[in-house]
Write a structure and sequence with these properties.
Layout lengths: L2 H8 L10 H9 L4 E4 L8 H9 L3 E5 L3 H13 L4 E4 L5 H13 L4 E4 L7 H9 L2 E6 L2 H10 L2 H11 L4 E6 L7 H5 L1
Parallel strand pairs: 1-6, 2-4, 2-5, 3-4, 5-6
């Protein structure tokens, strides 16, 4: 049994991967940059959550939806995985817990909205702590945010600053993304 299969069973409680998941998990775990396009309900979150537990450092998960971030964090914590979401809806206590988890290494997945990436506070934190992987959940919304708001410069600056980190983008619905957008 591979390490990924053991974590799948012991942490997430599944005996087998869904179609496509194992290939994605293996590629991400091996340090490859991956763009995974999966149907809604296809198990895309597992494709970055499981590798996050196999790698050193915290995994940054960029997600534009507060409700989704909170649901993911709640589910991960319920199975014993250190996770937190830095959102405008947080209490000071929740934020303090996130930063304590970064400090002691117990925070494994850290969910952030795209516009938070360029803030001075987050940039400082990212320089201070080991980031093992950056994953973009609901990537189609992040791409829209890049080109519809002033987030473009912040996200692209962050991307170029952290190029050495692995970037893993997942998307819940199939949409064609023009290559000129990706390479811009």
């Amino acid at each position: 049994m591979t390490e990924a299969s053991a974590v799948l069973r012991d942490v997430f409680g599944f005996d087998d991967f869904r179609p496509g998941q194992k290939d994605i998990v293996d590629a991400v775990t091996q340090g490859e940059n991956v763009l995974a396009i999966m149907p809604t309900g296809g198990g895309k979150s597992l494709c970055y959550q499981l590798p996050a537990l196999l790698r050193d450092g915290v995994t940054i998960v960029v997600s534009p939806l507060i409700a989704l971030m909170r649901d993911q964090v709640r589910a991960l914590r319920s199975i014993g995985v250190g996770a937190g979401a830095l959102t405008s809806a947080n209490t000071q206590e929740e934020n303090d817990e996130i930063f304590a988890g970064l400090e002691d290494g117990s925070l494994r997945l850290w969910y952030l909205a795209p516009e938070r990436l360029g803030s001075a506070q987050i940039t400082s934190v990212l320089r201070r702590y080991r980031v093992g992987m950056i994953s973009v959940d609901e990537a189609h919304w992040v791409v829209v945010a890049l080109f519809c708001h002033d987030n473009e410069k912040r996200i692209l600056t962050h991307y170029h600053h952290h190029q050495q980190q692995q970037h893993h983008a997942v998307k819940s619905s199939c949409q064609i993304i023009n290559e000129s957008i990706i390479t811009k």
